[in-house]
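[Amino acid chain]
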Amino acid sequence: MSPLRTRRAPAAPAPRPSALRDGIAGARERLLAWYDAHRRELPWRAAAGETADPYRVWLSEVMLQQTRVETVRRYYERWLERFPTLEALAEASLDDVLKQWEGLGYYSRARNFHRAVREVAYAYNGEVPTQPDAFRALPGVGRYTAGAVMSIAFGRPEPLVDGNVRRVFARLTDDPDPADGQLWELAETLVPGSRPGDLNQALMELGATVCTPRSPRCAECPVADVCAARAAGTQDDRPARKPTRPVPHEDTAVGVVDRGGKLLLVRRPVDARLGGMWSFPGVVRRRGEATVRAAERSVLIALDVEVRACERIGVVPHAFTHVRATYHAVRCTLVSGEPREVGCDGWAWVAPHEVDAYALPVAQKKIFALAVASALPAPSG
């Protein structure tokens, strides 16, 4: 006789979108009250009753994309010391801008922000556009950034969805993989009413501090009573984790050309990875290509000069968002030719005491340090 089996009750269906929207909208005031009581004091947030500075709000949102608050805080404060106003940033060179951004990563954010600010300075007399469509047309401004700046700086009922808001909504709807359209529809339902900027910040704050990726603190959530995932006990599984994809690897040879103690750096083309930053010439090795030959080729491609590889300096690994790179640094000497900009946007001979004036990515700084540390002393007398 087979053992009795206990039939498992079917999971409760997720609430219908219309009922869910009504429930969340009814909790709007609770979200605002919770935010007033628990919001973090951050340097880019205006105090209660104060008017937010559009430039500072915009800057913070650009810096916070794909970067933690703890990391952004020091960069934000340092940036404002150098570029306290939109006008100051518009007048700055790209080199200066990238130097201030150095180490924060995702450098296209800095380049686009600089371009957009210059457009505001010249086309809008330095006033950030208050119309969503006009602001959205600026370089690098997407739907999220537009929603954040328009709502926080100008009080417009514009929605936003970031990673934190996506997690909050996935749990409220008990949806393992909510579609973008559904997420933005919920955001559009919530934002109309008083204090749209604070409402958007409340959602992001809730996801950052309470509705966290692991071990959410549901007992502290102001909208727990309308959370379908909490009711079903699935909050730890929402949203479902996406399978990780293998990260491609690049084996990169780097030519370190030394002349009298100065090292040859190139400025990367703006449309390249790390565009506008300074680095050593480098190329991804071809299948079967010797590292020293690839290092020589990297200098030829960038500057149209012939060099001879002398010695290997060291290896520097670095992980980007979508690729891992291993840099093999090779010291080279000039054989013939004078550097010219054929595969780069500029070049310079840089002494060790001068390198701080150049914006170098983290891995390139490490290569520079290796090159200096391994350099042979100059012959005496």
